Amino acid sequence: MTADLISGTEIRKTILEELKKEVADMKAQHGTVPGLVTILVGENPASQSYVRLKIKTAEELGFKEIQDNQADTISEADLLTLIDKYNNDPEIHGILVQLPLPDHIDDKKVLNAIDPDKDVDGFHPVNVGRLMIGGSEVKFLPCTPAGIQEMIIRSGTETSGAEVVVVGRSNIVGKPIAVMMAQKGEGANATTTIVHTRTKDLEGHCKRADILIVAAGVPGLVKPEWIKPGATVIDVGVNRVGTSEKTGKAILKGDVDFDKAKEIAGKITPVPGGVGPMTIAMLMKNTVQSAKFAIEAK
Ligand code: NAP
Questions:
Q1: Cβ of 67 less than 6 Å from ligand 1
Q2: 111 ligand 1 Cβ < 6 A
Q3: Which of 148, 169, 253, 279 maximizes ligand 1 atoms within 8 Å of its Cβ, making it the mutation to test the pocket?
Q4: pTM (predicted TM-score)
Q5: Residues of the chain with pLDDT under 50
Q6: Which end of the chain is less packed: N or C, by CB atoms within 10 Å?
Q7: Which domains are present in the chain?
Q8: What's the confidence (pLDDT) of residue 171?
Q9: DSSP-assigned letter for residue 210
Q10: Atom of ligand 1 nearest to the CA of 196
């Protein structure tokens, strides 16, 4: 058996097309476009490239986008003042602060200063609390878990009553996706188990999973024989395992042995081209959502 491929690259394309249309309609009907600001402190090349990608995507969708570059000498107090300025700007619906920040600045203090109603990353404690409550309380889902759930829904995987096993308990992937899958609602209503390094029988848990979500950051951790035949496998892991001699680019592998797993699973995400491309699409979706909330609140 060969599994159906769940392509994040394809799903992202569809989502961005849907969002582009929503933005055009919003502009025509309300004269509002989503506004997104990305604050970048310093000149970390990896951060610069992430920010460029976010800004380029926002531009393509017709957002108002601001890339606010600050020197790495900015004081914590000045950065907090800057965030306050965007918190109070009605044309800005999403505020992102690119991490890492310089050592003299307290990340947590800065991220917690973002208005939770503009926290399109979904990491503010208020939004984490809203996620736990679920239903109409939820404003912004954290982007990578939201991307995972969207892939599960759009691949036609049945979640209601399904056994979902999540490998990993991080705050950015494992914990939120486990909670989201257990909530009432579309793409949820599952029975969820979280496993981690202290779990006694990792293999036994994985073997029960109708939907196996792996976010451990350990290449090839999940063996093909741990996969239930026909299961949906979402591989979140992105591991650099070498450099291609041909292209000079990093060789990326997931947490699942893809070539063998695809012969057992019913549906599976590749790495690269799986969960990775979804994250920015969900960030854009949150920003459009935030603009809609602002219009409703007028
Ligand atoms: P993390 O904070 O390092 O958490 C990893 C989790 O996996 C921890 O809970 C850890 O358990 C668990 N784990 C590690 N080794 C294990 C093992 N041998 N057996 C069982 N559990 C194990 O990682 P993360 O930030 O969640 O990221 C996980 C992976 O997803 C990484 O490869 C990362 O690059 C990737 N990722 C991709 C995207 C994207 O594609 N957009 C976004 C975020 C992350 P303990 O808690 O017990 O230590």
A1: no
A2: no
A3: 169
A4: 0.97
A5: none
A6: C
A7: 31-117 (3.40.50.10860), 142-278 (3.40.50.720)
A8: 97
A9: S
A10: 21
